[in-house]
Amino acid sequence: MKPFEGEARMFKNLEVFKISYAMAVHAGQKQAVAAQNVANSDTPEYQARSLAPFSETYQIHTSMGDNAGQRATRERHLNGVIAGHMADPVIDDEAVASPNGNTVSLEGEMLKSLDAKRQHDRALAIYNSSLGILRATLSRQ
Fold first, then answer.
1. 79 with 70: CB under 8 angstroms?
2. Are the C-beta atoms of residues 98 and 45 closer than 8 Å to each other?
3. Distance CA 49, CA 95 (A)
4. DSSP 8-state code for residue 13
5. Is the confidence at residue 42, as pLDDT, over 50?
6. What pLDDT sits at residue 56?
7. Does the pLDDT value for residue 105 go beyond 50?
């Protein structure tokens, strides 16, 4: 069977796997920020934090030449680079402060946590679907 033009290039760089991985990592980071907000829900003057949407963070990393690959968040991680740390959470400016100055809304954090779970599930579905397509393609050769 004669290979199609550009076929070899396609299998060297499977961007869909990198995107699904980056989406899953972002979902985990989003969940961690929501958990941190819930943990500090009784701390006076604590400002709720949130992450930028995945589409914005992925565009920033790819425009800077980042391949959205693995990142080390601690020195002891085996893969990645220490400079590629977790996306910096920003203070949520739209949050309303309680009398003690805390801006965490437990209901809002539950919704953020649910959104992070859905994003992670979506990333796994994309990965599994792409893997199935790749396996089907390779089994026919």
1. yes
2. no
3. 9
4. -
5. yes
6. 82
7. yes
Q: Supply φ then ψ for residue 91, to 5 degrees.
A: -70, 130
Q: Which of 29, 105, 114 is nearest to 73 (CA)?
A: 29
Decide: residue 4, CB within 10 A, 0-12 exposed, 13-18 middle, 19+ buried. Answer: exposed
pTM of the predicted protein model: 0.71
Interval 14-30: pLDDT, tens: 888 888 999 999 999 99
Closest CA to 49 of 60, 58, 63, 38: 38
72 vs 78, 79, 128, CA distance in Å? 7, 6, 24
**CA distances from residue 47 to 31, 35, 112 in whole angstroms, order as listed:** 17, 14, 16
- In three-state form (DSSP H/G/I as H, E/B as E, the rest C), the secondary structure along 70-134 is CCCCCCCCCCCCCCCCCCCCEECCCCCCCCCCCCCCHHHHHHHHHHHHHHHHHHHHHHHHHHHHH
Tell me the pLDDT of the chain averaged across its residues: 79
The DSSP result for 31-43, as a single string, is HHHHHHHHHTTTS
- The pLDDT assigned to 138 comes to 85
27, 116 contact by CB (below 8 A): yes
